[in-house]
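note to self: dont lose this again. the chain is below, predicted strucutre after it. 318 aa total, dont forget to put it in the shared folder this time
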Amino acid sequence: MKIILNSDVMFTSKLIRARLPSRLHDLATECARTGVVIAIPRTTLLEVERRQKELVTEAISELERAYNALKEAEISFEEKNSSEVFSVPDVVELFKHLGVKVEIVEPTLEDYHDAHLRACLHLNPQPPGRKSDEMRDLLIWVMALRLAKDGGGILLSRDEVHTHDRGNEEADTAGLLRANDIGEGLELLGVESPSGKLVRILLDPIWQDLRNAELPLPPTIGLRKVENATFVRGERGIESAKFDLHLGSLSGGMLKASVDIAIQGEDITDVTIRQINVDGELWRDGALTIRTNKNVPLVASSSEEALAALREVLGEEL
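---
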């Protein structure tokens, strides 16, 4: 799992000195705690460095003006070399200092070709009527898709190209989640917590059953958020699960619901869904109950990841 940073979420109007801005500090701390990698596209890093160089130049100019004012007023002071006082920060090292793993991602030739084609032909995820065909936005997008396909990713960006619903299907297929700010990104990290991973494992075999019940869901699981997850363990593994979740809806919006899942042996038998809200409106009154008989891999599979997640959630050894 990777957090992919666009330059707008790293933007600051102040020169970064010995410490990251508080919002980036919080993000790095949480990523370090959960083992999530922060991926910074080279494009993003170059833009951040450019802005910080501008701020260094401004700070040096202000200091020089202050020195001159003190000299004109004949006030004694210790003058220091401005270039020693201010310097361009090493943002990557500041992240690493907090214990988080950071990867600088170089764009590939294929990334450039893909972004170029999208810009010229006005392909997704550009919104209709967009006047700018800025390549850097599309380059970040194709890089984020590539990264997400290898273990999932969260793109933190406020850019319209990155957040527009024309990119929903492509993002869902690649396993790319998107957040407008760091706060929302931290919420999405809960999707990849041990409980979030278990919820995804439980949803996978019954996903088509949910769609067959006419729930407005896309072909692939667009898990956005998991809350209040509880799991009851029996002799052979999980016997039941309850959780509240947010999913990407078929329209590209959001489906929210409370879910109860019953498991017998190695099979999911009953799924009850309550408080179903689609795109901000109540979808139906009462509960939707689905009878099924789908194998869940938590017991039958030898997946070490699934077993480790189960141990962590249940707080005991299997």
